[in-house]
């Protein structure tokens, strides 16, 4: 990535952190910070929108749904400080994309190699369910990240909501989306403009605790992403 694009990516992150476009999400994220669970009382919550995180020269981008109220909304880094993030970063470490398997806080030394993690919606939504309007307000941030991350070849998309968001973002920046529209599924693949889209079940507890998503299934998708790189 050029120095100009690195500066643009940093400026985009600052713009995201200041965003207040969605009143419901602003109210919710700040309310969660003001009245946290007992185990997090006394911690200084981030309570702002979350920008992407990782290697600016990444060839793999991982797209999630949204921050967790007491995960990234607390720690200030995407997929950090909750069980979903524990699962994802451990998988990225096992498959060579991260220098450590844990993700506790935004300055804990975690570094990504050839990977960048982002989300469709940047504020924690009630019940993990953003509205279509909130999704559409946020999508330009994902579009601009994808435009700046010029080396990305593979998009690993976590769950249906992120799959749909990635397709919408890709179409908005002029990428060709095949018809019929590719359907989400674990292990699903589609060619979208310059990217290969890979589907993976979201590493939420409702998937990992029930066995719908296993360690082997997660690793297989990330290993497939690496195999597709040129």
Structure, described:
There is one protein chain. This protein has 230 residues and is of the alpha/beta class. The protein has a single domain, classed as 3-Layer(aba) Sandwich (Uracil-DNA Glycosylase, subunit E). Helices cover 40% and strands 12% of the residues. The chain contains eight helices and six strands; from the N terminus they run H-H-E-E-H-H-E-H-E-H-E-E-H-H. The chain has a six-stranded mixed beta sheet with strand order 1-3-2-4-6-5, with helices on both faces. A hairpin with a 2-residue loop joins strand 5 and strand 6. Helix 1 packs antiparallel against helix 5, helix 4 crosses helix 8 and helix 5 packs across helix 6. The longest helix is centred in the middle third of the chain and has 17 residues. The two termini are 17 Å apart. The relative contact order is 0.15.
Task: Kindly summarize this structure in a few lines.
By secondary structure, the protein is of the alpha/beta class. About 40% of the residues lie in helices and about 10% in strands.
Secondary structure elements and pairings:
Elements: H1 3-17, H2 23-34, E1 53-54, E2 60-64, H3 72-75, H4 83-94, E3 115-119, H5 132-148, E4 154-158, H6 160-172, E5 189-192, E6 195-200, H7 205-208, H8 215-228
Parallel strand pairs: 2-3, 2-4, 4-6
Antiparallel strand pairs: 1-3, 5-6
């Amino acid at each position: 990535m050029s120095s100009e694009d690195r500066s643009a990516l940093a400026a985009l992150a600052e713009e995201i952190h200041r965003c207040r476009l969605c009143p419901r999400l602003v109210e919710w994220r700040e309310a969660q910070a003001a009245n946290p669970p007992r185990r997090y009382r006394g911690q200084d919550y981030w309570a702002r929108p979350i920008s992407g995180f990782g290697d600016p020269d990444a060839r793999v981008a991982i797209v999630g749904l949204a921050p967790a109220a007491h995960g990234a909304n607390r720690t200030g880094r995407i997929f950090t400080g909750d069980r979903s993030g524990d699962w994802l970063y451990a998988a990225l470490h096992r498959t060579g994309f991260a220098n450590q398997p844990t993700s506790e806080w935004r300055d804990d030394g975690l570094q990504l190699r050839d990977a960048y993690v982002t989300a469709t919606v940047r504020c924690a939504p009630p019940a993990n369910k953003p509205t279509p309007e909130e999704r559409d307000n946020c999508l330009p941030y994902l579009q601009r990240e994808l435009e700046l991350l010029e080396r990305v070849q593979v998009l690993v998309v976590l769950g249906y909501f992120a799959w749909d968001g990635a397709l919408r973002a890709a179409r908005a920046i002029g990428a060709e989306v095949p018809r019929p529209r590719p359907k989400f599924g674990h292990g699903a693949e589609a060619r979208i403009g310059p990217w290969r889209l890979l589907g993976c079940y979201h590493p939420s507890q409702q998937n990992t605790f029930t066995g719908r998503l296993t360690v082997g299934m997660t690793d297989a998708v990330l290993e497939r992403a690496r195999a597709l790189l040129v």
